[in-house]
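During the reporting period the student researcher (J.K.) took over the structure-prediction task from the postdoctoral fellow and processed the backlog of single-chain submissions. One of the processed entries is reproduced below for the supervisory committee.
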Amino acid sequence: MTADERSIADAGACWPIAWMLALMMGVLAPTQAAELNITAEFRPSVLDPMHNRFVNTTPQSGYCAQHASLCRPGDFTIDTGLNVDQRRLFGGGDDPREKWYLAVDGNWRDVIVRNANNHELNARIRVFLVGMQWGLPTDGSAPGANGASSGGCRGRLGVGSGSLYRYAWDVADANVVCVRSPRAATDRVARYLSFSIGYHLETPNPLQAQDGQYTGSVTYTVGNGQQIDLGQGDYSDSELTLQLLLNVAHDFKVSFPAESPRVQLAPEGGWSRWIDHGLPPARLRQELPFHLTTSMDFSMKLRCEHAAGDRCGIRNPADDVVVPVDVDVTLPGMTNLRDGRPAQYTPLLSDDGQAPRFSPDGYLMQRRSTLRFTADGEAVTEMLRMPGSHWSGDMTVVFDANP
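J.K. obtained the following structure tokens:
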């Protein structure tokens, strides 16, 4: 063989090796993960103003969809799409993992959900029920089950035939391992094992949430010796992720008598006592009513044309003097979250760091509310010192639902 022929032969020998390496690398598959969307929604209800809960909008599937009569009111299950192959079911052996077997993390799991503004809410979820369906070779006899399960799981009625057995177990708030023996003569390999889960979901008060969709997830490991373990077998997936999608659709509206309302400060009872008798008023005040519709928290902030410390002021342009005006708000049916008190005569300041945040007791519809503007004390003394003077200033009240 010539040198050139040896070179070609050696080069050719590399291809089978590269081919073998490619096959070996193909075996190292990434983790297989199943994902379920769990959806819930909050919309305020005119028919139920105190409604403050998320409503489950996830389509029912799995065990309770197939056997509604075997599920209690409020039970809800969802099919995971996961299955287990090559699962031996041996009635006469001692290995619990070859029986009707379930090990599951039934503890509450904390889930942080966030919206597009990165606003966070805290939710909790736990698996409280696992429904299982076995497919077996048909030999004319039902696989059946003997006795109650060990480990604290409460069984639902099983439904079966010679080739199928479907049942569910309630799971305690704990890490549980439950076992139940099949019919003693059973010694077969299941063609598949599909299962569904029932979950309890605790959601935060949506009245304190911003608008939008909140998302978050919790993942359970699945398989032999994992957080969800249905016995020894070949699992289609190694993880199960529950993706929470919580949608909040609030109602919020503020209506004033005019698009740009004007406030005229005056003494109680008018100016006659000052004009006719020279008796100075203790204060100058004006209330501005408005109507509020809301199902959500919001803060109120003050913007001033003329600042007077942490308050807004009005200015006399002739002398370039500014006097402060106190602004407060009354919102029936709302609570000031800073002090836990009803929102009554709550002061508004120009410092955003002191802006009060309010929370509704329920869905407030066209609730009559009031802004109050007051000049008193030294402010009144200064204004009366210059009879005939004109004082003015723009003040903007900001209703901020996304502080």
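The committee noted the following: Helices lie at 3-27, 63-66, 272-277, 378-384.
J.K. will present the remaining backlog at the next meeting.
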